[in-house]
Amino acid sequence: MMTALWWIRRDMRLADNPALCAAVRAGDLIPVFIRDAIVEGLGAAPKWRMGLGLAHLRDQMKALGGDIVLRSGDPRKILVQLAQETGATSVYWSRLYDADSVARDTDVKSNLQAINIDAQSFAGHLLFEPWSVETKQGGFYKVYTPFWNTVKQRVIDGTLSIPELKFAPMPPSESLEDWHLGAAMKRGADVVIQHAHVGEDAAQQRLVQFIEDNIGHYKARRDFPAEPVCSGLSENLTYGEISPRQIWHAGQRAFEEGAAGAEHFLKELVWREFAYHLLFHRPDLPNENFRPHWGAFPWNTDATRHEVARWQRGQTGIKFVDAAMREMYVTGTMHNRARMIVASYLTKHLMTDWRIGRAWFEDCLIDWDPAANAMGWQWVAGCGPDAAPYFRIFNPDGQIEKFDKQGVYLDRWLAEGRLDPSDTALSFYDAVPKSWSLRVRDPDPKPIAPLSDGRLRALDAYSALPKSA
Ligand SMILES: Cc1cc2nc3c(=O)[nH]c(=O)nc-3n(C[C@H](O)[C@H](O)[C@H](O)COP(=O)(O)OP(=O)(O)OC[C@H]3O[C@@H](n4cnc5c(N)ncnc54)[C@H](O)[C@@H]3O)c2cc1C
Fold first, then answer.
1. Angle at which helices 336-344 and 319-331 pack, to 10 degrees?
2. pLDDT digits (tens, 9 = 90+) for 400-420
3. How do residues 182-194 score in pLDDT, each as one tens digit?
4. How many Å apart are CA 20 and CA 163, to the nearest integer?
5. Residues 122 and 16 sit within 8 Å (Cβ to Cβ)
6. Distance from the alpha carbon of residue 341 to the mean position of ligand 1, in angstroms
7. 299 and 254 in one domain?
8. CATH of the domain at 325
9. 3-class SS of residue 155
10. How many structural domains does the chain have?
């Protein structure tokens, strides 16, 4: 019998995994995970969460009589060595689309093919491969609505069942515990873990619960941050603990059965696709203004400013912003509306370069996604494709009136001024580093500046920006 390596990256699942299925067909299986420069370069929270996902998947493998071989170093060399060491004749993996992964995977493929190994990558992270969607003129889409109109009628293949796994003898492995993937969480990982939903089973349960209880209210209530209406699946999608195809089909069935919010949910799932479409075609999306004339905008690029620290620590004195930043610190995720509000406040009221906010999210989010995060920041800042117009500056206080009138979200995350603060608000103080010197009975932080001043300053700067295509 032949031996096949399944190189695990962001596809930590057994169900609906084309690369895994192909590996199982090709031979006895050796699952492999490599701690390379890309894994090493992850922010604190996503790296820690990736470690939890990996431990969970390893336990799944062990329960099935196998394991995951762990190695550190450059996959360009390691996969060649492992193939030679184990006599594997094939190496399969699920594709990724950011520039560093694409460059690495291209080299890996040619190195393996040079020694006659069948090296293949498979779709699995997305519904539509980014190069498979084109405008009538043959370019890529820069606006979401025509992208959606192009893909919405496409037939998406059914999902694949979990294959029967037969393992080859495992070569030596490093120890996951020795990797200390959570070492950079210089804060309350024990707080954040209470909010994480790790692994394939947790992801499946989330999907079932969302379809049964919430999809019907999704369109009407998804913008209310205190309500548990959204799916929470971004955490699992980013590590591939569930396939987007399975979510799509569940949403489609709900749509056909007449669930009110189902189409809206499918559209949101396709925003994720759109983000990857943009990232693939513009690999510099996380770092460069999508619209180059924004290079002339006078962003403040000093990440060490006191105002930035106050934003990061949920101490701006603007209630919605502080509540949202604390939600992220405690749970590792943040409601979508809250993401838009904190990003708008940082880039517009505080005129801070969007890349500073992007980087902080990259360090704090357990659902960090290279495409959605970059697109989200550029969208809010105004410099991205199909971006919110710059003059649309969210008023965080007005947003409370619209989306948290009873103050439930604020009570959930803010302790100041409350006789009996909620457990979630208190847990923020357990999660933050001691060096921040924050205490529950600290007085309410005073606003950095009146919201109206920040708004006018931003609008002035925008009106001085040369208008260009
Ligand atoms: C500044 C900013 C940064 C963001 N950073 C990230 C990030 O790092 N990782 C991430 O997954 N999402 C990011 N988003 C998008 C969005 O906020 C999250 O996907 C969403 O809040 C996840 O919650 P959910 O799974 O409950 O979503 P649901 O509302 O249940 O939606 C289902 C799925 O659709 C996709 N989706 C929904 N909204 C968006 C969107 N606006 N853009 C792209 N995909 C979307 C997600 O995969 C999500 O899991 C960001 C948005 C902004 C404005």
1. 120
2. 999 999 999 999 999 999 999
3. 999 878 899 999 9
4. 8
5. no
6. 14
7. no
8. 1.10.579.10
9. coil
10. 3
